[in-house]
Amino acid sequence: MHCVACQSTIDPSDSWCSKCGVAVRRSEPDSERRFVTILRADVIDSTGLVAELDPEEAVSRLEPALAAMRGAVRQFGGIVSKELGDGLAAVFGAPIADDNHAPLACHAAIELVRRVAGLGDPGLQVRVGLHSGHVVAYMVASEFSKVYEIGGAAQHLAARLESAAEANQIYVSQACQELAEGHVRFEFLGGKLLRGFNQSVPVYRIVGASDLSSWRVRRARSVSRFVDRTTERALLARAVENARSNRQTVLLLGDAGIGKSRLAHEFVQELRGQGWRMIDAECSPNLQGASFSTLKRVLLSVLETAARDPDGPGDIREDLGEIQRCALDAVLDLPISNPQWNQLEPHARGRAISDASCAIVDGIARRQRTVLLLEDLHWIDRASDTVMAAIASLQAPDLLVLLTSRPNGMPVWIARCRAEVVAMRPLDDDSGLAMLADMLGPSAANDDLKNRIISHTANVPLFIEEVCRGLRDSGTLRGQWGDLALVRPIEELGIPSSIQGVIAARLDRVSRQERSVLQIAAALGPRSSVAMLRKLAELPEDALQDGLAALDRAELLVRIDSELDDALEFRHEMVRQVTYDSMVDKVREDIHARVLATFESDGTSTDEPDTLCYHAVRAKDWYKAFVHGKSAGRKCLSRSAFSDAANYFEIAMGALDKTAMTPLRETDAIDLRMEARAAFIASGQVAEWLDLGKEAERRAGAIDDIGRRVAAMTVRAGAQNFYGAPVEAVVVSEEVVRLAEEWGNQGWLNLARYGLGQAYFLAGRYREAVQTLALAHAQLAGPDASAPIGTTPRYLLLLCCMMKGFTHTVMGELDTAAQLQQQASAIAAETDRPYDRAGAAYSGGWLMLGRGDPAAAAAILEDGFVLAQKHGIRLFVPVLACHLGIAYLEQGLFDRARGMLAEAREEAKAVGYTSAVLRSSIYLALATWRLGDVNAAQNMLREARNTARQQGFSGLEAEALLGEAIVTPASDAANKAAIIVALRAAIAIASESGALPLQHKAEALLNEALARGGELT
């Protein structure tokens, strides 16, 4: 470390700089994010109380209240982070994490109000606010003192709740209430408008402490059945057998949430069914500072159990001596009149309490087999700890002492009393899945979610329950427990607030050096290696190995079986997330920057640009994030992972925009958008595709780059074919072709001509579409084929073959369409890209429909549809589904046709593919008509025809008119006239556009209608 004054190197153990003599300033622990509960309290109208008092009198008036506040906070393990003159701010759950921070803060608030009220000064009234949330916590150290500071938005809500509270009332946020529910009783006050908050905030008022035990609170929240624990139950059963001849003590040892209490209570209930008497009590984190608080609970349970026994001796204290009875009364807070007790030395009193407690437990066990269950031994008070050590060492047959404890709180006397320690492990996968099946239901639809939860929680029962509860409370899972359905995709399972403290407490048990190694591993991801940690941690080898061994023993970062013998993995993802979230931004950025530099220098991840992009973004190295994000996008694009490619290109665009503004940056930004278009096109993000073109065009205009402006307009025009009206698309595309011809860039000219040909096709101008597409096709099929950035000549040629084939099919030129289809299929077979294969399937299915072979069309289209769905080629999904529905319709499979066409229409709407919405609506109407709903079919066709006419889709307008003529019943003169009008209109449009097959079909129907007097068959 370095001196803050002269920057000379100093030893961490020095108190003074040897060069300049300045005191060494430290900040321990380092700044870190913590999930805590914040308490804010102040004296109401303190200014009015002391306004007319001199300073000494003012201090003496307020100081008793402040002292009472400090005492209440410290009694329940809180830290006073700041005194405010007439109040204070305190934090629970830091600097050492405690999963009970919210209940402790609530009990401290209750005690605070009680203590201030007990001062006997009616002018001193307090109000308290409590909120649980994330803060940045740090120790500010100076030469003479240390102050624990907290920062962040969470403290402001606590302050606002305090300001809103009434006299001697405690207002609590919903986050705090949810964590303390069951331990404290609340009244919901509804939403309140608090200063600084735009929306009303749910507010609760504490009305008192709850008398529920921690086990009963946990049991009330539990929604799962008890599963497995075969090994642990066998060990407990063996202890029961041994207890027949001598006292047995068993300790269930495990981290919070592992299921110690659940196992203990399930097993004790079995013993009660076999005639065992139960004495049960638990240690409380609220009462750790209260002498004999745990022993008092044990004794009360003994007395209550004996009193309920109809065959018992009555008052079991009668067999005790006078001093021992006084000892029990002292623990039970009963009045004592015996002067001998008052004359005993403290050590003698303690001995009498221990002897009396052992005597009554021994006496009750001799009358009936007894199990004494004491939970949460890690919270036992010091006075009770000594007595429980004696009870656990009793030589009493038919007594089973069953204890539970976390590893960090195991008493030293466990070994002396020869207790059997049963280390609790997480459930196995089968048991975890059984637990999830009980909560979520047996449906196979949730299998993937169940496996994700197993991996996320490492089969810790509490974690499984709380993750499921969080998903249900958020609405991600709907239904009743035992029958829940997933209603939306889940990106991150997250960490419920109820277990953040549990994991954070485990992390606080490791040293700062081990914590630093764990943080580096968390930044690397779920899996890392010793070799990489060695490079990044910069520790001596023995220190690194000792640290990794400690983390492995703590089951935080464990070695795994792998071909690489130095592979490491987090025990479960939540440990990694809590570790990562505990770091402040500056620490995270520094670690990610070091990781990025290491990867780049050793070349191990040059083929993993996605990894480099991840670390660059989190290091906030925006230029490298742009470079690696672009590379990752290209990599995904080459693998047809279009949605992922679009995400990486978006990251690259956002990162580049965070760098300094220069002309070179703007050209990079434009080129990136041009290259990214293919990812957005294939993934069906049509609106975003259009925005890419518009934004690139704006930037090109700003730097007066004519070539890039034409390229951007070409991209915008292509998107316009899908997103807008054909008339507008034709106008834009014609202008783009003109500009591209002037520019002379053949690659962009080919793309512009393809886009114009597509616009002509959608507008029903088939002859012009063929002519325009032929120009691009000829150049792309030649030896000097050229394509713009972001695509290849072969890919663009396939698109030209596909679009030109559609046009020839619509015009009835099937031989030419077949030649183009053969060329498209050959390109797709050559590249073997899913996008190319899906495109070839689309045009092949269209050709088979044109030939009147719907069965062959369906076979081709089904393959393409599956391929498009599998690879996320969302742009092709609605059109493939639409034509597959048409193929089913023409085969007479009307139900299947309706289902597929309805799916096609919804997908087209989601993508923003206007022409696909219209086409699927037209043929969905025909399927609906075939299934007997004439009115619905007529309405759909009428709406489709009007929309097509208004927006300029003349080819689709003709198809809708033909459909109207088909579904309209010739039941009266008006309908017959309408049929003839529709057919003549369809014929006129088809004749003008060159759609000969549609024209001939409409003419045949018209002739038939005229011959039969308007009746169609």
UniProtKB/TrEMBL annotation:
One of its GO terms (biological process) is intracellular signal transduction. GO terms for molecular function: adenylate cyclase activity; ATP binding. The keyword ATP-binding applies. Signal peptide: none annotated. Residues 37-162 form the Guanylate cyclase domain. Gene3D superfamilies: Nucleotide cyclase, P-loop containing nucleotide triphosphate hydrolases, Tetratricopeptide repeat domain. It holds the Pfam family Guanylate_cyc. It comes from the Bacteria. Keywords: ATP-binding, Nucleotide-binding. GO terms for cellular component: cytoplasm. SMART domains: CYCc. PANTHER family: GUANYLATE CYCLASE DOMAIN-CONTAINING PROTEIN (PTHR16305:SF28), TESTICULAR SOLUBLE ADENYLYL CYCLASE (PTHR16305). This is ATPase.
